[in-house]
Amino acid sequence: EEDTQVRVLFDDDALYIGALLLDSEPDGIVDRLVRRDEEGEFDYFEVSLDPNLDRRTGYVFRVSAANVQADRYVFNDTEQDRAWDAIWESKVRRTPEGWSVEIRIPLSQIRYESHSGEQTWGVNFSRRRLSNNERTYFSLESRLQRGMVSQFGILQGVEVPGASRRLELLPYVLSSAHQGPSDVGDPFFGGSEASARVGVEVSYGIGANFTLDATINPDFGQVEADPAVINLSAFETFLRERRPFFVKDARTFDFGLSGMQNTLFYSRRLGRSPQGRAPAGADFSDRPDAATIVGAAKFSGRTSSGLSIGALAAVTQEESGQAFFASNGTTESFIAEPQTQYGVISLQQDLNNGASQIGGIFTVLDRNLPADGSFDFLTNRAFNAGINFEHQWGDREWALQGFFAGSWVQGDSTAILRIQRSSNHFFQRPDATRFGVDSTATSLTGREWRLQFERRSGTHWTGGVWVAELTSGFEVNDLGFSRSAEKLDAGFRVNYREIVPGAVFRNYNFSFTTFHNWRHEALDDAFSFSSWGDAHSAGWYSLRVNSQLLNYWNINPSITIRPETVSSSATRGGPLMTSPGSIDFGLRINTDRRQTLSFGANVNVTQGKDGRGDTFRTGVTLTARPSPSIQFSIAPQYTSQTVGDQYVTSTDAVAFGPTFDRRYLFADLDRKSVSMETRLNVSFTPDLTLQLFAQPLISSVDYVEYKQLLAPRTFAFEHFTNEGVLTDANGQLLCQGGQICFDGEDQHVDFDGDGIVDFSFRDRDFNQRTLVGNAVLRWEYRPGSTIFFVWQHRQFDRVSDGDFSLGRDVGSLFGAPTDDVFTVKFNYWIGL
What is the pTM for the complete model shown? Predict the structure, then answer.
């Protein structure tokens, strides 16, 4: 242990911290440069504050030995918002005895109770010494006890003004140029264009506890590109929020539901891609990439009684597009997205010195739909609401928590019918016993709830058990995000950990988890085991091990067993279908990340039963730090997958009685993909950094053999033979010598064996080559004020090959059309 000395001072404007970090081996102090707020391997000093002494929320300010700043907002005692940014100052100095740090935190950057006289704050100081991976605390954060803020120490005698002046303005000016591929005759884009815009963000402190944030014409040009994905499922892809205005204080509006990523409020709905389409027959069209956010405002803070309040309002304007008809040379305007208003209110009340909490959220969406009915497929109003609670006792060792959420959407019957038939509802399922399509309905309601009991702290054993329910009408995707279908849910988790180093391991833990979902049809005969078996829709048994060796290598094996279930989504609204079980083996290994060169590897093998399909996935991550200011990493990934139940389409061209007079077509699929995420971070100074990101993705998808489902609740198929010869007899397509014929683009199926084609569909084979990336040069030329130089790059190519050839596909990728956006953004922080 090395001594650390800390001094704290206050005046009417700021909090001052001075720390002397003694080190018996000062040459071993690591002062690597990284971008502000980036994690890394270096020595640092950290001060944590709980100004309200609520034992749940706080602030963390970190300074590295290279004077790189990082700050975070802590909520719910353990969770950290790393996107939270404050404007503060720091200086460091190397000394023969170690190093020292000075910090100035303006009181305007934190929220505290507004009253005169002495106050008591929660506080902690910590230090990391990389040479021996040691972290020391003023008040120990025990690894055997859950919580962070609740373990802070006490800082007495704090005297700060009852309210600090807090008015911040952040105006910006932006200029951008776009170069990309264009089509001959396209009147809207000739290969290049330029644009400019201005806007402002305003933050106003209302007393010491509340802040009003607003933005007019916000810009998100410096945001990193979303990763490339290929989605063959029935469900939407979740994309992480990256836009600064919505990332800031985002935790205020968190209301998580059961299931990963599901939430009542999903901020990426604001400014979403327009949903309107150009009129039929248009040769070229032009529409915005995203709905313009005219303005948005947030109000947030906390009262002295422990009530946290958050409110958000935003308006996106009506977006118009243009369509060009080459036949007569005319241009026609169309609505691409209606004007939309959004609102969110969140309340959280702390109880029992922060050990307990009760809260709620209410969201509303209102669309101004055009009167001509062109957007009747969208709801005109949507409301989500929820209440949640958490109660901890026994020094926060035990906890009971839960939530109840409800949804209500309203619109034309066209909109409600679209929701009923969507992938997380499938009301049209022909064998459903508890719901069905109502084509006249103009509203839809539903609920979701969850109750969970946990042991959160203990020397070795922790765990939890839960029950939950989601009803068929629960729909939050206008302003929230959910991919879950109706279900009854139950499960439990057991953890064992050892943190005392032994002969081999520095620490390790085991986690066993099992959960199971059932459709509500299990209640049709609630006392029958077969009823619950037929309604079993999801579940697994999973054992995971996380371990660290004495040399700081991490080894994490896992095994997951999925039993046979019955899927309601495999047929995309058709009858139930069996989903065979599988077993999954995984292994991740990471070397000591403190070293100049570190390495990580992962492998995952899934073996499906009864022809469900197998997956082999592997990847490595290589990270190099050739100098204290440069970090480079590459992470190639390879996936090889076979799928035995890839949905293709359905038809009633020739009735098939066993599956309710429709035929459900599937394919055996062979999929291969290679990607390589690459990052280069160069820190010239703590305030001047360059970040480069690139991700090439090459994927082939080969629909090897097409087939038809033979009966509901089975995994039995009729495989179509591929020896057929296609001929055209006086305009009538014939498929002779087989059940399916291929003409190079389409597949033609003869269901009844009479040689006449009954149904045709596009062949699904494809190869996709994508390269996305960006480069961001960021200079914080004064505290809070920055200049960004941004290059965003995208290449995309898709062909109907289906076979995987790495050399050919890499060559095709780099020969694909390029789309580039160059942006310069200047903003200036004004604090009054």
Answer: 0.86
